[in-house]
Model the fold of this input.
Amino acid sequence: MDLIVAADRNCAIGKKGDLLYSLPEDMKYFRAKTLGKTVVMGQRTLESFPGGKPLPKRTNVVISDDPAFTPDGVVIVRSFAELFAEIAKYPADEVMLIGGGSLYNALPDYCTRAYVTLIDAETEGADTFIPDFSRREGWSLESVSEPLETGGYTIRFAVYLNHNVKIFA
Ligand SMILES: NC(=O)c1ccc[n+]([C@@H]2O[C@H](COP(=O)([O-])OP(=O)(O)OC[C@H]3O[C@@H](n4cnc5c(N)ncnc54)[C@H](OP(=O)(O)O)[C@@H]3O)[C@@H](O)[C@H]2O)c1
Done:
């Protein structure tokens, strides 16, 4: 499994259930990296999509412990044990963790790569953050793109590699 996320200078990724920035080039990158794959997310990330609908052309796996939450078009899992059993059905390099904060913080070390869009900005009042992969033990920077401008911000696409991937037990 890999993860993909867009984070600002403070490792902030969200505020009040929404994204912090609108970045068309990052949306394209996210689409290219996830199309045809299995995307894993928490309930609140699914709810943040337009109409609360799953992402098309991808298998959407959603973790939620709310028995009343039974959306159409997604595979629901109720625990990490169920999540790990579900994603074991797919090739590891075709599973992408796409958020949100709870899963990026609970599961990063099960991921081989972190595709992190680095946004050269900061926003007051952000309430959701990711680990800082540039300082995380066992991780190193594999590549980073040239800066590019999108939506009024400068971004770079970084890839961090985990040298000690945890195995689902
Ligand atoms: N910038 C980015 O790239 C990016 C990407 C995705 C999301 N986001 C942002 O991140 C924010 C959402 O993140 P979030 O942390 O609030 O929510 P989240 O991780 O998307 O979803 C949390 C939900 O998942 C459930 N869950 C988590 N772990 C579970 C487990 N082990 N077993 C059962 N259920 C589990 C939680 O249940 P409980 O509440 O019962 O624990 C909760 O309902 C939004 O602001 C969104 O826009 C940003």
About this structure: Residues 24-34 form the longest helix (11 residues).
